[in-house]
Amino acid sequence: MAARKGNTNAVRGTNDSSTLSKCSMSQHGYFKDHFLKYFAAKIVRRAPLIHRGYYIRTKAIDWILQSFLCHFSDVTAQVVSLGAGYDSSCFRLLSEGAKSTFIEIDFPQTVHNKSSIIKSTPELHRLLQDPVFDEGSATVPLRSKQYSLVGVDLCNVGFLEQTLSSLISFSQPTLLLSECVMTYMDVKDSQRLIEWVCKEFDNSIFVTYEQVHPNDGFGLVMQEHFRTLGSPLKAVNTFPTLQSQEERYLCAGYGVVDARDMNSAYQQLLSDSERQRIENMELFDEFPEWHLKCAHYTLVLASKGDCSPLHKKVTQEVPLITCGVCQEGTFKLSPVAMENCDPSLSRYGHASVVLTGDTMLLIGGYGPEHGKHSRLGNCLLLHYNRAGRWVTSKLDIIDAAILPAMMHHTATKTSDGRVIIFGGRQSPKSASNVCYQLTNFMDNLDSSNVGAHQSHNKWKIEVVKAKGQLPLPRYKHSAVNVQAMDGTELIIIFGGRTNTGVALDNCSVFSINSNTWEEVVFDGEMPTARFSHSCFTWKNSVYIIGGLGSDFIPLNSIYKLSIETDTRIVSKQLKLFDFPYQYASPAVCHGDVAYLIGGICCQGDGTTGVVTIHLSTMTWSQCGVPADHRVILANHTAHYWRDNNIVTLGGGGNCFSFGTHYNSVYSLQLT
């Protein structure tokens, strides 16, 4: 490892944290490596999102390690780990019969600590042939026939070369691994290291795992996290994309280079059965955060000499996903003027409706309350007052305790002013099918006075006692109000997830007039099971777009549901050429145009910008949203407001191990 004195301890701290996370991931059965526990200071349980992140990191690196060792099984190949920390891969590989030479390099203090652990752990040191433990050595405290530990500053390539010359051959096939290491080095030092490796190792493959896309919402949160730890990411702004990472190694002299993000790795490296095993490991519901994390880490392979055929072979066997997000222009996203707003306005996974032109209602979700982060059971009014500012007030609800703290439910306003709340969940194992209605005692909401006069906020909540068969419990479904062709006012519920995480493909209809539920089987082409899809209404029809399918892969299919009566719905799949695969994009329909605002995909930086669909011609375009603000357009809601503006409410998420982020309220200018 390498770092200046000011952040050496902080960088070493990232090794300790990473070791605990890897160990937790292994202990929970994601990846078998029982040697990790010897290097972990303690056994802790990490969250499923952390487990997944470290699983795909470990799996991707193991894929290229195993490919390298297999390809060069007949010769003495070498694996040199730059900044190895407490990684245990070499012991796992040695226990599996690997014949290569392993060299691990890190801070002198780290390698001395690791040497002591190995010496005091019989299961580790008995894997080594003729080990020599030299606690007095400043640079090589452990040397054996197949494995050595080296304590050298990676910035000092001259001393590094001198130390390695007695341990390895620079002409033998060599895999050099930098796993979240060079990102902490000054760029000039890391570039000098790459150029030195390319020059000195005749037959080598350089494998790098580190961060990309630093300047979108997730990337800004990621950067701030490492700055706060005292270990800032020093290379990510110089090499911010997969393309710039590839150019970095090409300019250093490597002949074959490719970079893939972890979304590509998860889809391309794993078999269908292995992906299914991972999906079944723990009930998981943080897909936007998962795909964003994967989009912000890359595995770069750069090769020369005898290693280039191996590189080309593995790339052919596991091809890169090369399609990207094609964006035409940008929309302007600006924070709105706020005044004395309730902290719980910052939330995600909520539902919202427009009550009047300038008054919106947010219900539930996840956010700050009483000094901690938790699911919310409150309802918050957001109003645009005469002074041109947005203000909030808590909804004054009779029997408010009836509404539980929950997230990923839906809220739909009816023509008579009621708000129908359906579904949602507390934990992923506790989906709901309870239907609530909010009724306002005051029909004449005046957004300039709401908040000033609490009588305007007087609402009643009650469980809807409807006839018919209730829909299955679900969350992350869609619910829209539509007038059928026969004039009946209906709420159409489609898709979602169940308690067991299964994606649903059924549709339930709630008749506003008769207070009746009816499960409806479509005539025509049945939409496939999905959740977190987009949904909107236009001319007596409901449109269902994208979402995550039953295999948890983003969809790009579009279905038009023609609502004839409360029992007859005709479904037709629409074909839009090269339409993006995406999910978690709230839809806003204004006039003859629908807008899908933000959301998640599995290409580029993981975000989708704004997709515009012209409904009269069924053509579409996609625009970016400039990353001028720390905004993560996921788990949010959106509504058309006025003057070609769309207001986005809340959103954000748990940004891996970097902390929880909440958006505020933003205005998206459509012109």
Task: Write structural notes for this entry.
The chain is an alpha+beta fold. It is 22% helix and 29% strand. It folds into two domains: 5-317, Rossmann fold (3-Layer(aba) Sandwich), CATH 3.40.50.150; 338-580, 6 Propeller (Neuraminidase), CATH 2.120.10. It contains 13 helices and 38 strands. The strands form eight sheets. A nine-stranded mixed β-sheet has the order 3-4-5-2-1-6-7-9-8, with helices on both faces. Strands 15-19-18-17-16 form a five-stranded mixed β-sheet, with no helix packed on it. Strands 20-24-23-22-21 form a five-stranded mixed β-sheet, with no helix packed on it. Strand 3 and strand 4 (142-143) form a beta hairpin. Helix 1 (8-27) packs across helix 2. The longest helix has 24 residues, at 48-71. Residues 444-455 have low confidence and may be disordered.
Task: Describe how the helices and strands are arranged.
Layout: H1 8-27, H2 48-71, E1 78-82, H3 89-95, E2 101-106, H4 108-119, H5 122-125, E3 132-133, E4 142-143, E5 147-151, H6 157-164, E6 174-179, H7 187-200, E7 204-211, H8 217-229, H9 242-252, E8 256-261, H10 262-268, H11 272-279, H12 287-295, E9 297-304, H13 307-317, E10 332-335, E11 351-356, E12 359-369, E13 372-384, E14 390-394, E15 396-398, E16 410-413, E17 419-422, E18 435-440, E19 458-463, E20 467-468, E21 478-483, E22 489-494, E23 507-511, E24 516-520, E25 523-524, E26 534-538, E27 541-545, E28 558-563, E29 569-574, E30 587-590, E31 593-597, E32 610-614, E33 619-623, E34 637-640, E35 645-649, E36 652-654, E37 660-662, E38 665-669
